[in-house]
Amino acid sequence: MELQAIIEKAWEDRSLLQEKDVEIAIKSVISDLDAGKLRCAAPLADGTWQVNDWVKKAVILYFPIQKMHTIEVGPFEFHDKMALKTNYAKQGVRVVPHAVARYGAYLASGVVMMPSYVNIGAYVDSGTMVDTWATVGSCAQIGKNVHLSGGVGIGGVLEPVQAAPVIVEDGAFIGSRAIIVEGVHIGKEAVIGAGVTLTASSKIIDVTGAEPKTYQGYVPPRSVVIPGSITKKFPAGEYQVLQL
């Protein structure tokens, strides 16, 4: 039986998690994620993205089959179900203390991790900088030569499994303390200003033309996004409400 079929079957019947072949299949998917052979979402030739929900299911099923264990790093101690990513030198990845990536996250050669965090299922492509205290959530897809500035929060999207993860395409710049969550898609070479928060419901208003154009959940390539506000009427009067 193929990996996908085993995962789908175990997803529907969690009692199968006790079986050895199911455990092997789940761990094989996580190993392939760690090596970049599988992705939770992948770009297609037409520029759209395909969510591999069966891979996300494997990530979710990985948690219950793992046992808690203690990880000792010098004087530091951690207690978790997940192993930490290793072999950075062999992979050509620069990792500054105290950066942490979980096993099952892919970091391509040339990635630089300042003290930051990358969660399981994430994919970070070559030449990308994950700056100090930035976090890359589970299954997030980060392209080549992206700069995630200090304190950036890239949200994780494991469930619902059909939901697209946060996607940041090649060459994008995400400003300090920006937050991008709920499957928002950042186009190539876009610039997100410091402190901007983008959710699936955020209204992103293009004011470069004669008439405003509103996007939600998507920032077009080479756009520059800064915080802004619009006037809204309430029973108590008119007030400025934060928009983007």
UniProtKB/TrEMBL annotation:
Q: Which UniProt keywords apply?
A: Acyltransferase, Amino-acid biosynthesis, Diaminopimelate biosynthesis, Lysine biosynthesis, Repeat, Transferase
Record SUPFAM superfamilies: Trimeric LpxA-like enzymes
Domain annotation Tetrahydrodipicolinate-N-succinyltransferase chain A: ranges: 2-65
Keyword Amino-acid biosynthesis present in the record's keywords: the answer is: yes
Listed EC numbers: 2.3.1.117
Annotated GO molecular function terms are: 2,3,4,5-tetrahydropyridine-2,6-dicarboxylate N-succinyltransferase activity
GO biological-process terms attached to the record: diaminopimelate biosynthetic process; lysine biosynthetic process
Record has Zinc as a keyword: no
Name the InterPro entries for this protein.
Hexapep, Hexapep_transf_CS, THP_succinylTrfase_dom1, THP_succinylTrfase_N_sf, Trans_hexapeptide_repeat, Trimer_LpxA-like_sf
Tell me the protein family, please: Belongs to the transferase hexapeptide repeat family.
Q: Which PANTHER family match?
A: 2,3,4,5-TETRAHYDROPYRIDINE-2,6-DICARBOXYLATE N-ACETYLTRANSFERASE (PTHR43300:SF10), ACETYLTRANSFERASE (PTHR43300)
Q: List the protein's name.
A: 2,3,4,5-tetrahydropyridine-2,6-carboxylate N-succinyltransferase
| Biological source species | Nitritalea halalkaliphila LW7
Q: Which gene encodes it?
A: dapD
